[in-house]
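Q: what sequence does this backbone want?
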């Protein structure tokens, strides 16, 4: 009879947690040192985590006589990956890259700036509303192709525009349940309909979205006094 306990002991679980969280914190440092894309650092951390867990599982396998089937083993979890979701994001990101390469995104960004006279709040606010229709991942990827990252000013790495974009694209996607992959998954798990979400949640998400933009504007205008 199989024993009823966790697959890992307390120390092993803490080690896995420390490697996972520490690895995510290490990714920016890895990029700074190696100048490689962040996904390379993430894959490195995943490789280390996989190796450590395999060592732990090998130890457990010997202790219990080789009769246990570990459900949380990485090789078992890989067989449960939703490939359709991965292919969806892959296709979207490839389409965004193509649009960036032929110059469509740059022209679209210039058009928005001209239409709203360079008002970052209006531009990012519209992008946030669009993220409730189009998933925020490709939308942010597209925005990075539309606008250049500058050394100083509003378009700097930690400038006003990118801070607003991070907020608007992330929070704006919650206005509709189809605005994020997580929302689509919840629709299937909890049997939530699009109409129910529109009636009960969308207006609350929109109110919170606008409140966040107004709060950011108030802080930048009256506390930091940093003009756009």
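A:
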């Amino acid at each position: 009879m199989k024993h009823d306990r966790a697959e890992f002991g307390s120390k092993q679980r803490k080690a896995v947690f420390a490697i996972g969280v520490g690895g995510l914190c290490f990714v920016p440092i890895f990029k700074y040192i190696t100048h490689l894309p962040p996904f390379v650092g993430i894959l490195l951390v995943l490789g280390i985590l996989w190796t450590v867990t395999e060592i732990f599982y090998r130890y457990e396998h010997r202790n219990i006589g080789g009769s246990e089937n570990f459900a949380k083993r990485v090789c078992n979890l890989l067989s449960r990956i939703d490939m359709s979701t991965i292919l969806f994001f892959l296709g979207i990101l490839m389409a965004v890259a193509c649009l960036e390469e032929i110059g469509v995104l740059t022209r679209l960004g210039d058009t928005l700036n001209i239409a709203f006279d360079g008002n970052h709040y209006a531009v990012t606010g519209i992008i946030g509303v669009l993220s409730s229709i189009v998933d925020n991942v490709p939308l942010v990827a597209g925005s990075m192709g539309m606008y250049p990252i500058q050394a100083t000013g509003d378009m700097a790495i930690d400038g006003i525009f990118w801070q607003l974009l991070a907020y608007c694209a992330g929070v704006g996607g919650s206005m509709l349940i189809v605005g994020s992959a997580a929302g689509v998954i919840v629709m299937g798990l909890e049997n939530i309909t699009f109409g129910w979400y529109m009636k009960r949640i969308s207006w609350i998400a929109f109110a919170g979205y606008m409140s966040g933009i107004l709060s950011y504007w108030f802080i930048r205008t009256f506390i930091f006094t940093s003009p756009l």
